[in-house]
Automatic annotation (TrEMBL):
Its main location: membrane. The lineage of its organism: Bacteria, Bacteria division WOR-3. This is ABC transmembrane type-1 domain-containing protein. It is found in: Cell membrane. PROSITE patterns: ABC_TM1. InterPro entries: MetI-like, MetI-like_sf. It comes from candidate division WOR-3 bacterium RBG_13_43_14. The keyword Membrane applies. It comes from the Bacteria. The chain crosses the membrane at residues 7-26, 68-90, 102-119, 139-158, 195-216, 241-264. GO terms for cellular component: plasma membrane. It is a multi-pass membrane protein. Keywords: Cell membrane, Membrane, Transmembrane, Transmembrane helix, Transport. One of its GO terms (biological process) is transmembrane transport. Residues 61-260 form the ABC transmembrane type-1 domain.
Length: 275
């Protein structure tokens, strides 16, 4: 009963928004400005239909998700080890802190012109000397990868530092007294204790990476992805495709966030018991 009540309350605002949307769509009667709700949902329930000769929604989602996953994994691979070092050792913290504090406030999107100038339209396949390819790697531009990496890195890095700094000294001291090596200390004490904070950083970083990809896909050289589809449909005044793409962005972002949240809940339940 409580779950049903929660669902009903959660649906109130979306239903109101849909009603207002439909009212003004009928009033304006201009699909190039504001399409009706059923036009947008018709696009959503046919995800395999070809859109403006660019492919279907499934293809664009797959391309965008692949780009995000690559950039996000790179951010995690770099951010977590550096965060563990900076959180544990004062020397590393002093080394990284000035440059991190300078770069962190910069919006990832502000790096797009820089990424265009440095990486141009080179893709992952070009790095390995392949000039032409039909694989998914041909759609992963280095500039996009850089911008996504930048967006995901800082939440992961900073939350990892916070997690390591929050480890109780009594745990560390007890392990050292029992003869634990530095490697064992990291594997058995520091990493498990800081894991909830790290997963929080991963959740935030993944969300930022997914937001950044939409802007990154508007870069020259992009020919697929949800961001590209939004710009292309805007140029052709296909607002039903544009708004359907926006809804897909929100749904996919929610799913990605939910996956990380489930993982975080599964690994941090013991902290709640400890408190």
């Amino acid at each position: 009963m409580k779950t049903l009540k929660t669902i009903v309350i959660g649906l109130i605002l979306p239903v109101i928004i849909l009603l207002i949307w439909e009212y003004y769509a009928v009033k304006f009667n201009n699909p190039a400005l504001l399409p009706r709700v059923e036009m947008v949902f018709d696009r959503l329930i046919h995800p395999f239909d070809n859109l403006l000769n660019t492919g279907n929604f499934v293809r664009h989602i797959f391309v965008s998700a692949t780009r995000v996953i690559f950039g996000f994994l790179l951010a995690a691979i770099v951010g977590i080890p550096l965060g563990l070092l900076a959180g544990r050792y004062l020397l590393f913290h002093r080394l990284f802190n000035p440059i991190i504090e300078i770069l962190r406030p910069l919006c990832p999107i502000a790096w797009i012109p820089f990424a265009l100038a440095i990486f141009k339209t080179y893709t992952v396949t070009n790095v390995f000397g392949v000039r032409y390819s039909t694989s998914i790697f041909e759609h992963i531009q280095l500039g996009m990868l850089f911008v996504i990496f930048y967006g995901g890195f800082f939440p992961i890095f900073i939350n990892t530092i916070h997690g390591v700094s929050s480890v109780k000294n009594s745990y560390v001291e007890s392990a050292l007294v029992l003869g634990a090596t530095h490697g064992q200390l990291f594997r058995k004490i520091i990493l498990p204790s800081s894991l909830p904070a790290i997963l929080t950083g991963l959740k935030v970083g993944l969300g930022v990476s997914w937001m950044v990809i939409i802007a990154a896909e508007m870069m020259p050289g992009s020919d697929a992805g949800i961001g590209y589809l939004i710009m292309f449909s805007y140029e052709l005044a296909e607002m039903d495709i544009l708004m359907a793409s926006m809804i897909i962005i929100g749904v996919v972002g929610t799913i990605l966030s939910g996956i990380v949240k489930v993982a975080a809940d599964q690994t941090s339940f013991w902290q709640a018991k400890e408190r």
